[in-house]
Structure formats: structure tokens, C-alpha cells
Hints:
With 508 residues, this protein is an alpha/beta fold. It has helices spanning 7-13, 58-73, 118-123, 129-145, 154-170, 178-204, 237-240, 244-257, 261-275, 279-282, 287-305, 312-328, 348-355, 370-377, 393-412, 426-433, 450-458, 469-475, 494-505; strands at residues 24-28, 32-37, 40-45, 49-50, 53-54, 80-88, 94-96, 101-110, 208-210, 220-223, 226-229, 241-243, 337-342, 366-369, 417-420, 441-447, 487-489. Helices cover 46% and strands 16% of the residues. The protein is elongated.
Amino acid sequence: MDDETQQPVIDFLGDAANHGGAPVKRIDTHAALVFLAGDRVLKIKRAVRFPFLDFSTLGKRRAACEAEIKVNRAFAPAIYRGVVPITRDPAGRLAIAGKGEPVEWAVEMRRFDESQTLDRLAESGHIYEGLADRLGRTVAAAHRVAPTVTNARFTETLADIIAQNETELAAEPDLFSLEDLRALAAATRDAFDRVKPLLQARERAGLVRRCHGDLHLGNVVLIEDKPVLFDAIEFDDRIATGDVLYDLAFLLMDLIERGLRPVANIVFNRYLIETQRVHDLDALAALPLFMSVRAAIRAKVTAARRKHSDAREKLSRNARSYADLARELLQATKPRLVAIGGLSGTGKSLLARTLAPEIMPMPGAVVLRSDIERKAMFSVAETETLPKSAYTAEATANVYATLAAKARRVVAAGHSAIVDAVFAQPGERADIAKAADSDEFTGLFLTADLQSRLERVGARTRDASDANTAIVQDQEKFELGRINWPRVDASGTPDETFIRARVALDLE
């Protein structure tokens, strides 16, 4: 069966008369047709076969619809209602869930506001910091409950995907040059060979799970101000099963490709904070590969969509953009470790968040913050106030030791890190500098007058820091010793501090 023999069903579902007169909006993808009418959505699978999916028979399309409901209810139970047949009676009349013989199957969903999918919000510039933070939390929560898959042999699957990418991209010579594809293939295989033992160890540790599998911005929607994941991979458990960071990588890559690197960095850091898996820091060695493979997948899928779209020119540009990004993500970048010190109220955390997307490799530096590490150490919520007993010299020493150990792992994985802490003691500054080679490390010490610091701390709400105005006053008594880090005047606006820090770090 093909699109032509499905045409009677397509025409039927596109007719407002068959939806109580409600206007019908149709959305075409390379593998499905979606009909939106009133508060209901009906989605049928195209009768197509690709190397990565097969919907060529009615039975396979029904199984795919049933799998889509099962998989996606775990992510979006309020959206996915069930599977309904499109039937034909003896007189040849089609009906939705009628009494005749099923000639097609559809996924039934509750309609949401299509303008609130994150790809649309990205286009209109409406993905802000708070939404990015919630998105990181949402993905971390989904991965927390995703079923672990034993003996999944994820590295074999990934090797197959890499080979498929090479073949399918090469089948579009009007879009991608042979020279570029050869360069991408060589870099991809080199990266895969380097991290294969790491990925196998992560699978043994239970970090290969049945995930979403297709986590780009078009498959996340904002409902009641909460990001909701939908349209997860249903047609192949093998494709949807992988390392949790490989699942996250699709989202990060899509944000980067759209020029939203600061948003990607917020999602990335929030995910790491929420999961608190120290081994994910080691796995950052695989993140460039993961994002590159995801970009290559997006390139080939976007290219395939041209066959079912009038927007061939735009799709061609987008496919090339994804392929270019796939190569760029695998370019070698020297990691950096930046420590940002200063008394409370100097703006360390804001500067760290602002600088992080600027420090390569993509999606920017891991931000390690002493306030968050301390809360995690005592197993309390990020904004919950700790008692004074959590701030003993011993507890503080443990916090700084944890920061240095994590920073060391990040840099060893080839990624960059920013460590945000007061660093009042010379020993604390010396220890963090040892977490990386001398040519990889830069320390900055922020300074601001007492009144500015008091005002800033007094204005804080729902922050991980427990510092208050009394603590700021007490810090005036600190003996800081000799500070051999560049001092950055942070008494002005955050933008001014940012500019001065960029100069001190010699960022382009």
C-alpha cells in the first residue's frame, strides 16, 4: 500500500463534514499525516518503508499506532487517548470508529495549541531562561523513570545508525558534497572508537534506557506553562533505546542549530544538577559524538521530507545546516577550567551562567556552584535554607573538595567547567587551580563595595545561596591573603562585569 491507495482515507479525514463541521488542519511529515479538528487530533501512518521504519502494511501501521499510545502515555498521558479504526461499511462509506471493516488505523489525541511547541516558540524568540530550566528538569524526570534495558548493545546500535547516516546522506548528492561527507564520516568513526569502551561501561551501569528517542524541539509542547514531551519513537524500540545523554543530545543539538546556545547551556546544566550522576561528567567525552550523530539524523530526515512538501528550498537549507553542524560539533576544542571567586553579592553565579555558553566545547561549560553542591550534600532542596551546622569548616572543606573533583572529571573528559564559589582561603584557590593543567586554568576574583553587595543579597528570592546581609557583613572580616587571580570589578551592571570577565579570559 502507498500514499495513493491511502488517498480515500486522507480525503475523508480532511473533510470538515466528517468532524462535525469543524475546520480541519492537516500536517504532513515524512512518516505520518495529522488531522486537527476541534479539540481532537487523528494521526495516521503513511504507507511507507524507510531503512529506519516500515509502515507498508495495515497490520504494521496498527501495531505502530498501538505502540505510539503505549510509549507516549508515559510522557504525556493527558494528550494520548487511544487507537481508533477508520472503517468502511458494505456500502463503501468510511467512518471514524464505525462498524465496518478497518481500512486504516489512527492515533487519537487531545489537541493542544500548536503555537506552543518549542520549535515555534524558538522561532518567535519565546524560550526564556525559566522555561529552559524547566525543560532540563522535565527531561531529567523522564529519564529517571525510563526503563533500564539490559543487554541492549547500544554501541552496536549506534554503529549501525552512524553507517545508515553515511549511506542516506550520500544518497542526496544535490544537498551534501562528497568531500564534506567523507570528512564527517572519518571524524564520526574516530570519535566513536575513542568512546566505545566508556559507552559500554555506562550500559553496564544501567544508563541505557528506553527513552523518548526523538527529542527535538518540535516534539515538546508548553501546556499550562509546563514542557510536555510527546511523539516519542514508537516504531523501533532499538532506536529509542540508548544512553540517556544520547537522548538529551538531540534537544541540545536542536537548540544549538537554532542559535540558542545560552538556552542549550541552561538545559544542559539543569539536567546535570537534577540527575547528580557524577559518571555523567565522564560521559561528556561522548557528548560531541552524540550531538553530531543527532545532527546527521536530522539532516537526513529533513532531506527526506522534501518528497512530501512544497517547501523544498527551505528544507534543503535546513538539511545542509544540520549537516554543517554535525561536522562542527566534532572539531577538537581545548577544555578550560574557570574559577569565579568573590564575596557574597559580587555576582559570581550570574556571571558564571552568562559566561558558560561562551566557553567551548558546545553547549558550553558545566557550571559547578558551591551553594548547589552543599544542598546536594545535605540532601535538601536547592532553595531550602540550611542550618549553621551545614557551614562548619569540615563541611565547607568537603564542598570545595567535591567541586575540585568534579571539575577534574569534566576537564579530563575534554569539556570545560566554571566553578562558582567564594574561594576566600588561599588553599581553596590553590586546590581548584590543580584540577586542570596550568594552561587550561584561569581564576577570576570579583570585587564590589559593601553597599552594593548588601543590596544584591537583600534582593534575592528563591536562590540556592543562604547568604544574607548578616553574612555579607561578617565576610568583611575575612583575611583573603594574597590573591594572584585577575580581579574583576563587579560593582557596575552585570553586562559591565561580563565584558570585563570576557577580556580577562581572552574570549573572542
